[in-house]
Amino acid sequence: MSKVLRIVLIGWLVVATALAVMSRPAGACSEWPHVAPTQMPFDVPPKPAPVPDTSVPQNTKPLGPEEIKRAEALLSLLDGKQELWAMGEFVHLGGPVVPVLVKALTMPGPRLRYNAIETLLMIKDPGAVPALVETAKEPNEMARVREHALRVAVRLEPSLVPPAIEVMAKDHNPTIRKAAAFEARYVRQKAVIPVLIGLILDDERFVAMSAVQSLWLLTRHETELHDWDISTKQDRSEWAQEWVDWWKANQETFQLPEPRTPRKPPSQD
Asked: Is 221 exposed, middle or buried (0-12, 13-18, 19+ CB in 10 A)?
């Protein structure tokens, strides 16, 4: 049957159906058959076969003069339509490209600087941490970039981060202070404890709450029960003294407890 003939037949059926409906007497609707939706049986799709996780390994050899020149030319592409490609190129070049990549941390364009920090996280070279710490401490940098620089530095080498925590805890921007209070819980250094105790008195309650939670996680020190969620600054001033007294009495002998091992999810055999 030709395509034209099928279209004509379908059109005729539509017209005939419409005329039949129009010609039905009132109240005859229940006498006409209707379509009932049904679910057709189906087979469960098979589980996908395991696929090995393969990727191109990072470069570990020192970069030659031409490779360094090419890497420097890639820096400007970290902000634009080719930014993901440029980030992938840097990741492939690996640790040896970090000295070139950290130059982007002082280049114009917050998106470029943010993407450079993200790329350093993917490369996972602790050699980038000193530059990240300086970015986190920079008072004229955007808050979003400073927060990300601190976050990545903590994940690459937390032992080098306390100076950034201390500077950011005194910043005029509460968002920066909260980032310092939150990330300090991953810095297992005694130097951050007095900084966190000082943040309990912060004017912004969410900064103070983050500081207290970080103190609990780092020290596991059990204080008196207080309702921090509805606390006022006056309440926190009184409660902070408990932490001050405890730290004065224990700072010389205190040792950070071992981090808790996360529970393994139950097997689904």
From this structure: middle
Q: How many angstroms separate the CA atoms of 28 and 106, rounded?
A: 80
Nearest-CA neighbor of 99 among 77, 80, 123?
A: 123
The torsion defined by the Cα of 210, 213, 219 and 225, in degrees rounded to 10, comes to 130
Three-point CA angle 239, 241, 244, nearest 5°: 130
Residues 6+ apart with CB under 8 A from 99: 127
Q: Can you tell me which residue has the tokens 């996972």?
A: 124
Residue type, 128: A
Rg (CA), the chain: 31
pLDDT digits (tens, 9 = 90+) for 189-238: 889 999 999 998 888 888 988 999 999 898 887 777 777 777 777 887 88
DSSP 8-state assignment for residue 87: H
Give the dihedral of Cα atoms 169, 170, 173, 179; nearest 10 deg. Answer: -10
What pTM does this model have? 0.73
Between the CA of residue 106 and those of 19, 75, 85, what are the distances in Å? 76, 11, 21
- Joined tokens for residue 256: 């950070």
DSSP-assigned states of every residue in 10-78: HHHHHHHHHHHHHTSPTT-GGGS------PPP-PPPPPPPP-----PPPP-SPPPHHHHHHHHHHGGGG
Judge whether 168 and 137 are in contact, CB under 8 Å. Answer: yes
Which residues, 6+ apart, have CB-to-CB distance to 243 below 8 Å?
197, 200, 215, 221, 223
